[in-house]
Amino acid sequence: MSLTSILSADAIDSALKDCQAPDSFSPKKFFQLCGMTKKSPQEVKSIFNILDNDASGFIEEEELKFFLQRFSAGARVLTDKETKAFLAVADDDSDGKIGVDEFQAMVLP
């Protein structure tokens, strides 16, 4: 399964264009622009599984750096500041990684 089987390629492109500049990435805005906030909990879980590059059941800080590249190979890497801010917003239990429940809570309104 690919991200474009759940999200439209145009919406992904629009979300990526919005955060091209370093330190301009906002997770909530990105999720909204790419259409993720309008998806079902099961679809968001499927997206999480695609983004969980090592299939550990978590998105760790190292994987977060390459978050945008999971949507498009040509996208930029998140800055350390963006990566740490993303983790801080999503990591409700402070274990240093984002689980599927934390991801769904962050994405879905």
What does this structure look like?
It holds the Pfam family EF-hand_7. Residues 39-74 form the EF-hand domain. The model has no long low-confidence stretch (mean pLDDT 96). This protein is mainly α. The chain starts with 8 loop residues before the first helix and ends with a helix. The chain is built from seven helices and two strands. The chain has a two-stranded antiparallel sheet with strand order 1-2. 52% of the residues lie in helices and 6% in strands. The chain has helices at 9-18, 27-33, 41-51, 61-65, 67-71, 80-90, 100-107; strands at residues 58-60, 97-99. It is globular.
Q: What is the compact description of this entry?
A:
This protein has 7 helices and 2 strands, in the order αααβαααβα. The chain has about 110 residues and is mainly alpha-helical. Belongs to the parvalbumin family.
Write the layout of secondary structure elements.
Elements: H1 9-18, H2 27-33, H3 41-51, E1 58-60, H4 61-65, H5 67-71, H6 80-90, E2 97-99, H7 100-107
Antiparallel strand pairs: 1-2
Helix pairs in contact: 1-2, 3-7
